[in-house]
Amino acid sequence: MKVNTAQFMALYAWYSWPNVVLCFFGGFLIDRVFGIRLGTVIFSIFVCVGQVIFALGALLNTFWLMDMGRFIFGIGGESLAVAQNTYAVSWFKGKELNLVFGLQLSMARIGSTVNMNIMGWIYSRVRDLLGYTGPSTLGLTLMIGGLTCLFSLGCALILAYLDKRAEKLLCKEQGKTGEVIKLTDVKDFSLSLWLIFVICVCYYAAVFPFIGLGKVFFIEKFKFSSQEASAINSIVYIISVPMSPVFGLLVDKLGKNIIWVLCAVITTLASHVMLAFTFWNPWIAMCLLGVAYSLLACALWPMVAFVVPEHQLGTAYGFMQSIQNLGLAIIAIAAGMILDTRGYLFLEVFFSACVCLSLIAVVMLYFVNHLTGGDLNWSAKKREKMQKVAATEKEI
User: Which residue ranges does UniProt annotate as crossing the membrane (predicted)?
Assistant: First the structure.
């Protein structure tokens, strides 16, 4: 389509920037207006419509239409992730929640890996079929890729049916408190929840922007070929596919979420320090980063469910996604400026500083949880025992 790099990167911006606000309101709408079932279906429809408009923009060689498609896709995309997290907690809280979050991460990474490897092949097949390269080829390829969005919508509809059926069979309505979420409830979020938000933003700021810039880093510092650099840069996601469910199951069986998060953050810091100040084989550092990334996601995200009332879960996860998008957008801009003016060594120091902030927040969370008698660092056995006691008291 003869677009420059700035125009191409704008497609990402149209998705990320709106979600600084939209994720929070998506969570609020799930909690207060639509409910989880209708909300999930509505956001899935936004994703489908956005992808169709995006593909039409390519088909008609109209780039502003593609921007609009990405904006609509973004309205649904991140809010759908909030709905997914809320569903997971609703179904699995107190049981296999960490495992479920690990499986969610694995499926997301499988999707990313398949997309990166399959879409180019589909494009070449469509080009051979049409006999030329042009907007029609790109548009048709994006339409074919959009079939996964239709599959997602189908899953949302099936899940809504299953959830409604479970509500009747398990009498889930009887357990509701009658409380409703208000936007002003954000001011009542606990210190523990705010520290979880800080850990999330500072940690992912040192992972996603680094991977975005990593290929050239490995080419310049370690003299890798383009193919080698791509392979090592993708190892973080590849490792997370099998390891996320394993770590999720491990955290479920042992508990102690804060300790696992602490281990993940320290390992990530070690990885960035190795990449910044040594010429050791970078495969070591990147494999460590992949393991740590998988562990953190399984242990951190479920902790929100332990510190937030169930009627506020959608809003809490939405707020977490919102500030994560804000942090990633700002850090990505800062990282680009540092790279242009100071080079990769300063960039790695910057990422290490972000991880250090995350580490400080984890240590603070440990002490806040300990002083307030929170359950974030309970063992799995103790959590199960206390849940049984609470259930018994409720029946009495």
Answer: 12-30, 42-65, 142-162, 191-211, 231-251, 258-277, 283-307, 319-339, 345-368
